[in-house]
Amino acid sequence: MRNSSATDKKPIAGSIVSKDGLKIGYTKFGQGPAVVIVHGSYSVQENWFEFARLLADTYTVYVYDRRGRGQSSDYDKPFSFQMEVDDLAAIVDLAGHGTSIIAHSYGGAIALSYLQQVSFEGRIVFYEPMNGIFDTVSKGLLPQLKSLVAEGKLDEATVLTQIKIVGFDPSVVQASKRSPTWAAFTQMTKIFLREVEALDNLNPSIADTDKIKSKAFLLLGTESPHGIRTASAAIVARVRGITVYPVYNQGHIAHVTNPEQLKNLVLQCLMP
């Protein structure tokens, strides 16, 4: 049964200022212990709202736009991966003591680095976190992709990233091209290039990940492609004591395709 006293409250939109002065936009749902969601590439905070509303029955959920999109646009501001880590730190500070983190895809890379830098006491739930531990994410395609983007060929660059890097079936990508959101989707490819370059360089040692003291969990879709499964296996190999749960009959976007199942798994991870 849903807790109407929590979920019927209108979400609260707000913003904070990160370490470098960039304004980071977020939305807050529900009430209870705090959870911060770090979304992945080709995504904005709204993609997580349905899941956040479900989790808001029992938790206060903070979903924020990572820099470069939505309410956190950085325009042509110089970029470094550490800036993204600092953004997460700012949101966690806002959420307060005892906060837990749900980190998806590229967001998992940010959270992994954050946990190595701070003494974080909350729980961390990685959902198919990307990294360059076992293999590069870019598959050597960065020069070609940068050239396509520089020439304004965003359609071609986006199709290439979705099929060759993300691992989606070509028929799925072609169907996406016919959707009304495709044009906005291709604009994220410009940001994706800097993100995939950061992932290629994310290769922490066991000594690095031994700095993580949080109770850690990893969620892995049973239908996810090889590259994503390899990246998840790398986290299992690096983070001691991590607990793995399958997301049955789902791939990389269960927060969209089956948010109820994902919510139930997250609740299991966050259970005291």
- Briefly note the structural class of the backbone: alpha/beta
Backbone CA Rg:
18 Å
Determine the mean pLDDT. Answer: 94
By DSSP (H or I, 4+ residues per run), the number of helices equals 13
What would you call the shape? globular
Q: Can you identify the CATH superfamily of the largest domain?
A: Alpha/Beta hydrolase fold, catalytic domain
> How many angstroms does the end-to-end distance come to?
21 Å
Number of domains: 2
CATH class value of the largest domain: Alpha Beta
Low-confidence stretches: 1-5
Encode the helix/strand succession as letters.
HEEEHEHEHEHHHHHHEHEHH
CATH topology of the largest domain: Rossmann fold
Secondary structure: helix percent? 40-55%
What share of residues are in beta strands? Answer: 15-25%
Task: Give the strand line-up of the largest sheet.
Answer: 1-2-4-3-5-6-7-8
Sheet with the most strands, sense and barrel status? 8 strands, mixed
Number of DSSP E strands: 8
Question: So, CATH architecture of the largest domain?
Answer: 3-Layer(aba) Sandwich
